[in-house]
Design goal:
It contains 16 helices and ten strands. It is an alpha/beta fold. Helix 14 links the parallel strand 7 and strand 8. The longest helix has 23 residues. The chain is globular. It binds S-adenosylmethionine. S-adenosylmethionine binds next to helix 12.
């Protein structure tokens, strides 16, 4: 009988080279391979793609073959020639123009997060984020480091924006939020989740509260005439007074901060919240025993390498909410990337 040590270490080999997959997808997106194939409206040869994206023929042939192996492209034999087209998912999620595109998230992963992960060993050893090493900017003020230029800020906002096109509806409908008419989305960023709220709940209005330059950029780049029920308030949620509301949304905010900062922020929210109101946390939840899901365990490492926060279990969020005064805390899993935790302020 073969011992464990003799058996073929399939998983370990896959993990060792897992980044090959990410980099292949990043590169195909960056070069615009999926956009070119979408625009052509017919299958293209490697020579046609290489010309359109301005890359070597040999490199393009290998890239297209790998994307076919990853089931992002389909290869068709035509008169002894191989022609390529996008799979349905690649057309929707990997092209720039589709409203559900993950292109901006992929770009941010490629250009920013991947560089931070280069220093994961240091992050684990030191227990701190690696912004200074990766980008040469002090990480003392996390969002000053993240928004080190206007261009970086817009990229971050586009990345934050894109995920809610995929699973925003699920998090805002995990609980029935229809009793809450005035919603304040703290750290509401581009406004993608605010839009999901106004679409799911026709009677609510949403005020986005964020740092001044984020508010300015959101108004300029992410809002349209259709977003009549969305308004803005600029400020620092740790320092400035918070607008009064029935429901406060904190989506992917607490995972950026230490427990002490979270309690400080939630206590400010509790003070501003109308009696009978509530707070909805939108986060990726770890199982109570920390045994998964794997994606969330990896997200927690991502928080280590980039922020001062972590991913948490429902009980950990409930403890933070209770420390700030919220009661009747419940959570719902959506089955997608992000889940919801609701806490109440008694009437
Ligand atoms: C990780 S992002 C989450 C964005 C959005 N809620 C989402 O899920 O797409 C955190 C947000 O909090 C905002 N933020 C960070 N520090 C802040 C502060 N002190 N006051 C107000 N907003 C802040 C950031 O600008 C950013 O928009």
């Amino acid at each position: 009988m073969a011992s464990a040590a003799d058996s073929y270490p399939k998983k370990i080999l896959e993990y060792m080279e897992g980044f090959f997959v990410s980099k292949t997808v990043f590169t195909a997106c960056e070069l615009g391979v999926f956009d070119v194939l979408l625009g052509a409206q017919r299958p293209l040869s490697a020579a046609e793609v290489s010309q359109a994206v301005g890359a070597s023929l040999d490199g393009t042939q290998r890239l297209l073959a790998a994307c076919t192996g990853l089931e992002l492209l389909e290869a068709h034999q035509d008169d002894g020639q191989v022609l390529y087209s996008n799979t349905e998912q690649a057309s929707v999620y990997l092209t720039r123009s589709n409203p559900s595109s993950l292109f901006q998230s992929i770009q941010y992963n490629s250009k920013t997060i991947y560089l931070c992960w280069h220093y994961l060993t240091d992050a684990v050893r030191e227990g701190t984020n690696q912004y200074e090493k990766a980008f040469g900017v002090s990480s003392k003020d996390l969002f000053r480091a993240l928004y080190r230029s206007d261009e970086e800020m817009v990229k971050f906002m586009q990345m934050m924006n894109s995920i809610w096109n995929i699973c925003g509806r699920d998090v805002v409908t995990a609980f029935d939020l229809s009793p809450f008419k005035v919603i304040c989305d703290l750290g509401g960023c581009s406004g993608a989740l605010a839009k999901q709220c106004t679409s799911a709940y026709p009677e609510c209005t949403v005020m986005i509260f964020d740092l001044p330059k984020v508010v300015h950029t959101s108004k300029k780049h992410f809002m349209s005439e259709a977003d009549q029920r969305i308004s803005f308030c600029q400020g620092d949620f740790f320092k400035d007074s918070l607008p009064e509301a029935d429901l406060y949304l904190l989506a992917r905010v607490l995972h950026d901060w230490t427990d002490d900062h979270c309690i400080e922020l939630l206590s400010r929210v509790y003070k501003a919240c109308k009696p009978g109101g509530a707070v909805l946390l939108v986060e990726a939840l770890l199982r109570e025993d920390g045994s998964g899901p794997l994606t969330v365990q990896l997200y927690s490492l991502n928080m280590l390498v980039q922020t001062e926060g972590r991913e948490r279990t429902p009980a950990q969020y409930a403890a933070l909410l209770a420390a700030a005064g919220f009661t009747r805390v419940r959570h719902r899993l959506t089955g997608k990337l992000y889940d919801a935790v609701l806490g109440h302020k008694e009437p």
